[in-house]
Amino acid sequence: MPLYVISCIDKPNSLALRMATRPAHLAYAHSEGLPATVKLGGPYLDEKGDMAGSLIIVEAPDLTAAEKFSQNDPYRCAGLFQSVEIRPFRITNNAMGNS
Fold first, then answer.
1. DSSP-derived 3-state class of residue 33
2. CA 21/CA 25 separation, integer angstroms
3. Interior CA angle at 40 toward 39 and 44, to 5°?
4. Which of 23, 49, 66, 75 would staple 60 via disulfide (CB 3.0–4.6 Å)?
């Protein structure tokens, strides 16, 4: 099944909204029966080390399913993101499990 990268940048000065919405976002990402399955995810960090966006790699049957997954993310529903970009992705190197 294809992979898609969902890259999201938070609106400026929105850390409080991110933190308030985080439990719902994490519960959503771990839910079953979604249009896409999270394979890898985590926050982008700003220069201070604060969370400032999200990178999520999902497995989905097509781009439409990846977009539906993103549209229903509690972070996105709360209006946290300044921008969202979804692109097809292929792994060519994976050393994450070898550290």
1. coil
2. 6
3. 155
4. 66
Contact 45, 80 (CB under 8 A): no
Distances (CA, A) of 29 to 13, 33, 43, 52, 62: 24, 11, 13, 18, 18
Helices (H), 30-88: 63-71, 74-77
Q: Which helix (H) or strand (E) holds 29?
A: helix 15-29
Question: Which residues, at least 6 apart from 9, have a Cβ–Cβ distance to it below 8 Å?
Answer: 44, 52, 53, 81, 82, 83
Q: For 33-92, how does the pLDDT look when each residue is reduced to its tens digit (9 = 90+)?
A: 999 999 999 999 999 999 999 999 999 999 999 999 999 999 999 999 999 999 999 988
Split at pLDDT 50, 70, 90, the class of 93 is confident
